[in-house]
Amino acid sequence: MLQADGLKKSFGKIRATDGVSVEFGKTEGEMVFIVGPNGAGKSTLVNLLTGLLEPDEGTVTLNGEEITDMRADQRVHQGLVRSFQVVKVFEEMTVRENIRTALLIKRKKTGGLRPRKMLQGLFSLDDEHEEIERTIDDLLEQFALEDIEHTLAEKLPHGDRKLLDVAMSFALDPNYLLLDEPTSGVSAQETDYVIETIVDVSEQQNVTTVTIEHDMDIVKNYADRVIALHQGSVHGEGPPTMLETDQDLRRLLLGVEE
Ligand code: ADP
Ligand code: MG
Fold first, then answer.
1. Ligand showing the shortest atom-to-Cα distance for residue 184
2. Ligand 2 centroid vs 42 CA: distance in angstroms?
3. pTM of the predicted model, to two decimals?
4. What are phi and psi of 184, to 5 degrees?
5. Cβ(16) to ligand 1 under 6 A?
6. From atom 7 of ligand 1, which residue's Cα is the shortest distance away?
7. By C-alpha distance, which of 191, 150, 144 is closest to 167?
8. Which residue ranges of the chain lie beneath pLDDT 70?
9. CATH classification of 1-79+174-258, choosing from 3.40.50.2300, 3.90.930.12, 3.30.70.141, 3.40.50.300?
10. Which listed ligand is nearest to 13 at the C-alpha?
11. Could you report the per-residue pLDDT of 44-102, keeping only the tens digit for each?
12. What DSSP character marks residue 190?
């Protein structure tokens, strides 16, 4: 379980996060969506959870261990991975090369498949190479990127770029995946396909997802639980039906008060 307890973060006089306590992964593979108007503190909360920002107060706990002071890259190795609102792929690399790069980053940091001393001689570099290429094949298949594996990232339509970005996040072997507006910049025709693919792969791999999303149809279709933020605080939390029944929330999301 990933927990935030009393998180606070200010930028000057702006209280972006103003005492947020939330839990993710109450059930394994849970899909939680974070909603709220612009400036509600959604991205700041995700940045605090993943270690891109340090809180002024409060704690972050992962599977019972406090990780408030842990660096973002160390959190990745604990299975806490984020995907960015603006896709961070390597433009001059092909789809396949991008995924390989993500896998190598993970392997290098963790010591990879390098055999422990007692096993030396049983594994070779060839085995490691083959294992990596097989993992790339699996990811390409899961994200339906096989047909364009040799296409340069810079040539991809937005939907496929997003899927590549998420495939690279999955190469890091997450238990928790945090996505900041995965459908932003993706064309209306591609939106459903992109989100469905992310949801399918997350379900297959039992990954708990925390997704910031402004498209309420997507939230209603896919959320196990919704957390609504407003002015840095949790406005409400509940099943997606809350988007219909909570009139205050509807007003907030429609931006009437903004
Ligand atoms: P959301 O993602 O819900 O739109 P953010 O978390 O990005 O909201 O921002 C919450 C508030 O904090 C906003 O008022 C925003 O302008 C402010 N803010 C966020 N990041 C910074 C920053 N790095 N420096 C100054 N103000 C920031
Ligand atoms: Mg944001």
1. 2
2. 5
3. 0.90
4. -70, 135
5. yes
6. 43
7. 144
8. 84-87, 108-125, 255-258
9. 3.40.50.300
10. 1
11. 999 999 999 999 999 999 999 999 999 998 999 899 998 865 557 899 999 999 999 98
12. H
